Amino acid sequence: MWRLTIAILAIAAPAMAEGLTFTIGGPVASQDFHFKAAVFVFRTAGCADSGKLQVSATAEGVINGERRSVALKVLPASKPGVYGIYQTWPAEGQWVVNLKGACGNLGAGAIVPIGPKGFVRESAKFFPRTATGGEIETSLKALTQGENK
Amino acid sequence: MFTRHVSDQLAAHVDGQLDTLEARRVESHLAQCQHCRAEHEQIRFGMMCLEHLPTAEAPAAIWVSIAESIPERWLSRPHPFQLWRPAFAALAAIVAVSAAYWLFSRRPETRWEVIERHGVARIGAGEWIETDSSSSATIKVGQIGSVELAPNTRLRVVTERPGEHRVMLARGAIHANISAPPRLFFVDTASGTAVDLGCEYTLRTDQAGAGLLQVTRGWVSFQWKGLESLVPAGASCRTYAQGGPGVPCFDDAPEPLKMALESFATNSAALDTILVESRVRDTLTLWHLLWRADLPNRGRIYERMAALTAVPEGVSREEVLKLDRGTLTRWKDELAWTW
After folding, report:
1. Is B307 helix (H, G, I), strand (E, B) or coil?
2. pLDDT at site B169
3. CATH of the domain at B224
4. Rounded Cα–Cα distance for residues B211 and B173 (Å)
5. Are B299 and B182 contained in the same domain?
6. pLDDT 10s digits, A124-141
7. A88 at interface of B, judged by CB pairs closer than 8 A
């Protein structure tokens, strides 16, 4: 019986462990004046060892039917665990920002659509892992079709 | 059409080393070129980071290691320089004082550049600038940004020191675009002071102080006699003659909420509408209302905020109703992620 209990716990443990997560917000959330011009800021949670935390971002877009990808610099704010994203992708076309996070065995992802007035919070999607190519394309398609404004 | 980028001049522009015409050319290009604008922001960000690096004192042990590396024979007999050291020190002091006096007496007067329809002028502390119904003007605020004056605007430069740039807007409208550490740029009006926290905004006021603050980027603190409103990008805040700042509200808030907010001070039923219509991001408005509501209504506002967002740890209903500053600041810091 106790072997069964241990086996169940071993299988359930990863599910019960708190995962790595992203939260996004406007520049005011950073409380750092350096980020007043950032498109958005984000913070991480759930990484027990900040030394293991790795975050990266790309801008994924479509310009006149042509698919583009731009690597972004993720700038740390004065508050630990808070980062800012600046727009270094072209102004034309439709774009989403693909966030990737890793902390040891934990992963996190987010797709943040960018509209004419900045990031579209309501349409952002969050994952307990890196977003797949298909999920990125789905978000871009929704933007192109005008679903995310 | 090919466009020549200005990457080579961005650093000089950040340092204020370009002449007026060249700086204007760069700024015109930046307004149209996303690539150069992003690079410009990165250079400026880097400069700001450098300015905030702490000064580190050399450890005392370093002098010991320096002394130990000096050959013994140099230490055993007085060097000619040591014999003349007092005289050299006095001479160096005289030269330094003289040079400082000469430089100070010739220091160019610090006056901001004003670009108007009919040319470029300069304006200094205590001086007024006024536009008529058909004119506008742009003031370069030192090295930290610019202020555009709309028609029919009257403004005075109060202070133009490196540590404080302050103007007084008597009437009219200005659009400020400031890139600087917070609390370097201030706009006084009859209804309070807009404290720049790194932002871009439009401020309108009449002579009595009634007006509107609308923030486009960053955020602004509007203060009057201890009353403060924090206005982030995408939000606006009315200002009142003899009343200071109103309650900020997002520009995309539901119209019934905006209308109810206008009459909150005089209409007790307005709060009902505000609470019903408020969304998650309207906790910006609700948080500011906490400070302005009586105790029973403060409780209602708290309940609505708790229903819209999770109340963070360390924030208790009791402390919120008592308007405990630390508690409310903690809650605001968390709510800001939804604004």
Report:
1. helix
2. 95
3. 2.60.120.1440
4. 9
5. no
6. 999 999 999 999 999 999
7. yes
* A125 touches A131 (CB < 8 A): yes
What pLDDT shows up at residue B238? 93
- Nearest partner of A110 among B30, A3, A118, A120, judged by Cα: A120
Beta-sheet pairing, B112-116 with B227-232: unpaired
pLDDT in tens, A1-45: 766 655 555 554 444 456 999 999 999 999 888 888 899 999 999
Helix, coil or strand: residue B63 = helix
CA dist B238 → B109, B156, B273 (Å): 37, 22, 19
A19–B contact, CB cutoff 8 A: no
Closest-CA distance, A44 to chain B, in angstroms, reads: 12
Amino acid at B269: A
pTM of the model: 0.72
CA–CA dist A25, A112 (Å, integer): 11
| pLDDT given at position B227 | 85
Range of the domain at B118: 111-246
Q: Where are the domains of chain A?
A: 18-144
Angle subtended by helix axes B34-51 and B7-14, to nearest 10 = 40
To the nearest whole angstrom, how far is the Cα of B223 from the nearest Cα of chain A?
18
Within this chain, do residues B231 and B184 fall inside the same structural domain, yes or no?
Answer: yes
The verdict on B240 and B257 lying in the same domain is: no
Same-domain check for residues B275 and B213: no
> Are residues B267 and B321 located together in one domain of the fold?
yes
Whether B214 and B262 map to the same domain: the answer is: no
Does the domain made of A18-144 have the CATH classification 1.10.10?
A: no
Among candidate residues B182, B34, B140, the one with its CA nearest the CA of residue A36? B182
Contact A110, A22 (CB under 8 A): yes
Q: Which of A26, A73, A90 sits opposite B34 (nearest CB)?
A: A90
Q: List chain A residues with CB under 8 Å of B197.
A: 33, 36
Q: Please count the structural domains in chain B.
A: 3
> Which residue's entry shows tokens 């700038």?
A75
